[in-house]
From TrEMBL:
<dbReference type="InterPro" id="IPR014748">
    <property type="entry name" value="Enoyl-CoA_hydra_C"/>
</dbReference>
<dbReference type="InterPro" id="IPR029045">
    <property type="entry name" value="ClpP/crotonase-like_dom_sf"/>
</dbReference>
<dbReference type="Pfam" id="PF00378">
    <property type="entry name" value="ECH_1"/>
</dbReference>
<protein>
    <submittedName>
        <fullName>Enoyl-CoA hydratase-related protein</fullName>
    </submittedName>
</protein>
<comment type="similarity">
    <text>Belongs to the enoyl-CoA hydratase/isomerase family.</text>
</comment>
<keyword id="KW-0456">Lyase</keyword>
<dbReference type="InterPro" id="IPR001753">
    <property type="entry name" value="Enoyl-CoA_hydra/iso"/>
</dbReference>
<dbReference type="InterPro" id="IPR018376">
    <property type="entry name" value="Enoyl-CoA_hyd/isom_CS"/>
</dbReference>
Amino acid sequence: MPQELLLTGLREGIYTITLNRPEKLNALNRQLIAGLGRVMEEVYRRPDIRAVLITGAGEKAFAAGADIAELASLDVEAATALARSVQQDVFDKIENCPKPVVAAVNGYALGGGCELAMACHFRTAAETARFGQPEAGLGLIPGYGGTQRLTRLAGKGRAMEMMMSGGMIDAATAERWGLVNHIYPPGQLLDASLRLLEKIRDNAPPALGRIIGLVNAASLGDAGGFDREIAAFGACFGTPEMQEGTRAFLEKRKPKFDGGER
Ligand code: COA
């Protein structure tokens, strides 16, 4: 039986997706990427999924990039189509997902692996994690959104240096540069990230979806962001979650949100 390239598991509303090709440092081949696209469709569709954690199998890598053996045989048209499809069918779907998606970076996040982590809403990392965009050393550039997302996250100078040098940065530098929100000892990364997601999961799903959409718009420099925020703020007042959230506060109890998309 072929090895499953993605492992998934749902526990109390949190869906964990594990990239599972550890013998190749979880390099993103076509099959793995297509599977990730299908799994993300499931995330959108299933109301029982409230939040998502993406991580890599093994201790060494989150993902060491696109599969270089596959890239080697592509021509201009095929490479253009690949980049378009990975960006639009998979990574954009992660970034625009109305449910929180967090990457727990457990080791190398290089090339497409770093781009995948950056498509997530935010990142946690093991102390041993390493980030890099080594494509220029292969005669390539990042093609899965890296030039855009890294510049937005880390700023122009740092993005330029990282992509021009192809060098790796460690987890502490990634945290300082804004790529990573929290760093944990390797053995604690998953549990600590899940605890963070549990807190997020317990908040109102329609509010979380609106926050994601508005912050994404801001990071794209959407000039209409303030107006969209006004409209989205108002729309919250038409949701049962707002009724429940405010009533629970006044009744001095914890709110209970049923979940599901609205
Ligand atoms: N694509 C395909 N295979 C990859 C890969 C990638 N991006 N990254 C690692 N692998 C494979 C290696 O070929 C090796 O396979 P093998 O055992 O069949 O020879 C296996 O994963 C283990 O990698 P290895 O290089 O032996 O591990 P290492 O600890 O010596 O080095 C790295 C780790 C991350 C420094 C090194 O694997 C590397 O530089 N990978 C490529 C990173 C990259 O350029 N990514 C961007 C791609 S566009």
